[in-house]
Amino acid sequence: MSNTIEKKGVSRPPIIVIMGHIDHGKSSLLDYIRKTNVVAGEAGGITQHLGAYEALWADKKITFIDTPGHAAFTGMRERGAQVADIAILIISAVEGVQAQTLEALGTIKNTKLPYIIALNKVDRPEANPDRVKQQLLEHEVFVEGYGGTVPCVAISAKSGQSVDELLDTILLVAEFEDFKADPSKDAEGFVIESYLDTKRGAAGTLIIRDGTLVSGSTIVIDGLVSPVRILENFLSKPIKEAGPSSSVRLYSLAAVPGAGSAFTTFTKKKEAEAFALSTRKDPLVKERTRNGNEEGHVYLPLIIKADTLGTLEAVTKELGKLSTDVVKITIVASSTGPITENDIKLALGARDPIIIGFHTKVERAASELADMHKVHIQLFEIIYKATEALAEEVKKRTPKVTVEETVGKAKVLKLFSKDKDRQVLGGAVLSGTISVGKEFKLLRQDHEIGQGRMIELQQNKQKTKEVEAGKQFGTLVESKMTIAEGDVLEVVEKVEK
Questions:
Q1: Helix H or strand E segment including 472
Q2: What is the Cα–Cα distance from 336 to 196, expressed in whole angstroms?
Q3: Per DSSP, what are the bridge partners of residue 493?
Q4: What is the pLDDT, as a whole number, of residue 198?
Q5: What pLDDT, on a 0 to 100 scale, did the predictor assign at position 81?
């Protein structure tokens, strides 16, 4: 999905993300806007953190993503930029440009996001906006009034000074960019927050980039299908539908989605299921084709379910460590909640998968489907039990290779007699041990010239089954080659590894 919707349909409100150094006032700015401009008269109605909220300025809506330091932006801030239309790069007029400022600026430039510079803390006596603008010049950021076109507004997030001017600037940039959407379409967008609600199951905060999300439709996130049943707006009030640029919370999802995951909705459930199958087809077909041997590797597809995100992360990390040079564990999917039909269907796309549940249960329908298709499910309460079981599975799936190992070497001191292929020899064990019934390679001047087998062994004229290094022996061997004094018998055995 591109950063901007194709220029068709109707204009939609801009989606804003505020980026910059952690101490430069991102939260303060968001708090001030939320308290003063969230849908007139409703600011006090926000009872819980939703990850995004909608402000009203000059009779126009602006959606702010309230997660600048959230998991949706850590590690891959480009995902946050992908969700948003316009970035506000906030910089303290006191501290100036910092490492995190440059990091955020790099993300903005890489994703080609339109952006506005907000110089914060200008009400403080030590503030020096001109010094900051000069620093920006050094990093090829040319703001208005300094030879460039990047909008720059000096504000105080604490007192609210010039925040109205910043909001005006946001609307001007949005008008110039002309963000479009088609409300008649099924909704699509991104997950910006997710968690497991003990009463209402897996939940996610969604930003709608295009289309309209309607209660009763079907949503697909991370290849999993869920009905749209419990839908709330950013004020935590129940709603039946939400249009472009809206932030909503959705409950009773099939699993806790990943922050930054894209979603698509469908009016018909069958269409949603077909789409979900197609979105997870490629990686699973890859699993299927490479699950045997590819460049000496065997792949073990794994689906992991756990009760909480913390547990899921820990289990996934520990089980991932069990990969070997030959057997590679591939995590097909991992999520919180019970093992569902969706998990079984996901497993069916891979070859010989294992579903591991940790502190969770298997839904009846899932259990029946797993039995029908012989999908292997294992449930655990203790992490080391899970690692032990999977380690054993890795061992079972490691291809067995038969190799020859040298267990002893002996030098021929004398040839006593020869009758067809049978020869009586005298010798001394150079290393290891030699044993009755073992096969040997016949070496002459370090070159293999034949093979044979030891039929009998004697030591001190007494029959024995084994002779150790440093001892002399007599032996009856079977070999097609005539053995001579000075030859070496390299005793080998075949070992399965």
A1: strand 472-478
A2: 8
A3: 405
A4: 67
A5: 45
In the sheet that 152-154 helps form, which strands lie side by side, from edge to edge?
A: 52-57, 60-65, 15-20, 86-92, 115-120, 152-154
DSSP string, 284-352: HHHHHHHSS-BTTBEEEEEEEEESSHHHHHHHHHHHHTT--SSEEEEEEEEEESSB-HHHHHHHHTSSS
Rg (CA), the chain: 35
Separation CA 340–CA 355 (nearest Å)? 11
Beta partners for 11? 180
Determine the pLDDT at residue 320: 83
Give the other-Cβ count within 10 Å of 452's Cβ. Answer: 21
DSSP for 339-385? B-HHHHHHHHTSSS-EEEEES--B-HHHHHHHHHHT-EEEEESSHHH
Global confidence as pTM = 0.58
Whether the CA torsion 429, 434, 440, 441 is positive or negative: it is: negative
Reduce the DSSP state of residue 136 to 3 states and report it: helix
CB 208 within 8 A of CB 88: no
Dist. CA 308–CA 144, nearest whole Å:
48
pLDDT value, residue 4: 41
* Helix or strand run (H / E) with residue 120: strand 115-120
> Are residues 359 and 332 in contact, defined by beta-carbon separation less than 8 angstroms?
no
What are the structure tokens assigned to 348, written together? 């069916």
Count the Cβ atoms, other than its own, within 10 Å of residue 11.
15
Q: Which of 133, 134, 141, 83 is nearest to 109 (CA)?
A: 141
**Is residue 200 packed enough to be buried (19+ CB in 10 Å), middle (13-18) or exposed (0-12)?**
middle
10-residue averages of pLDDT along the chain (497 residues): 53 92 85 71 42 86 70 42 85 92 87 93 95 93 90 95 96 95 94 76 88 95 88 91 94 77 92 82 38 60 85 83 86 86 81 90 91 92 89 86 88 93 95 94 93 94 94 95 95 83
Residue 407: what pLDDT? 94
| H or E element at residue 469 | none
Tell me if 16 sits within 8 A of 65, measured CB to CB. Answer: yes
Task: List the structure tokens of 23.
Answer: 């101490």
Task: Tell me the torsion sign for CA atoms 342, 348, 350, 354.
Answer: positive
